[in-house]
Amino acid sequence: MTTQPATKTPSMPTAGTYRIDGVRSRVTYTSRHMFGLGKVRAEFSIASGRLDIAESLSECRAMATIDAASFKSDNAKRDRDVKGPGLLDVADFPRIEFTSTAVREDKRGMVLVGTVSMHGVVAPVQLPVSSWEAQNPDRIQVLARAGHLDRYSFGITGAKGWVGRYFDLDFEVVVVRAAGN
């Protein structure tokens, strides 16, 4: 895992359910290619998700669904290859899902502990939160990172050497209070 800068635990926003604003949120993918010589940056869209804020940090939960077919870099051929059957295989595995199982504090600050489900495999992950900003009572921006994920552990083993084994996902998520909260 990549170490995030230390953060001060933010004050808790008002308890309730917040939904992810897919228009204002994004997931950035970063990896290496060509035997580690080049850097690849791409983005995914967040299809849906929510943040459940409880009275205590330990009872909060988060979930997000990423549209795997939304992978977009600066190279159309790469995008087709990544979405194809040799890598993400978006026809058979259209979603990448994160579900938290706990929220805790450590020396880095707040950490979302949970699982990522991708390519038919569920793997544990920790997302250190580098920023948590209540922009108003009904809107929160969260920055977090799932660092140094191993694509082989998800069964994505195609294009060895050409596509990096490890990747990072940086989450820039805006949540808004759900109606009726």
Task: Spell out the key features of this protein.
elongated; 181 residues; Lipocalin; 1 helix; 9-stranded antiparallel beta sheet; 9 strands; single chain; mainly beta
Overall strand count: 9
Order of helices and strands: EEEEHEEEEE
Strand content: over 45%
* Number of domains as seen in the coordinates: 1
What is the count of helical runs?
A: 1
CATH architecture: Beta Barrel
User: Helical percent range?
Assistant: under 10%
Query: Averaging pLDDT over every residue, what do you get?
Result: 86
Describe this structure in words.
The chain is mainly beta and 181 residues long. It has one domain (17-177): Lipocalin, CATH 2.40.128. It is built from one helix and nine strands; from the N terminus they run ββββαβββββ. The chain has one helix spanning 76-83; strands at 16-20, 26-33, 38-53, 61-72, 95-106, 109-118, 121-136, 139-150, 163-177. The N and C termini lie far apart (35 Å).
Please write out the topology.
Layout (H helix, E strand, L loop, with lengths): L15 E5 L5 E8 L4 E16 L7 E12 L3 H8 L11 E12 L2 E10 L2 E16 L2 E12 L12 E15 L4
Antiparallel strand pairs: 1-3, 1-9, 2-3, 2-9, 3-4, 4-5, 5-6, 6-7, 7-8, 8-9
Question: What would a concise description of this structure say?
Answer:
The chain has 181 residues and is mainly beta. Helices cover 4% and strands 59% of the residues. The longest helix has 8 residues, at 76-83.
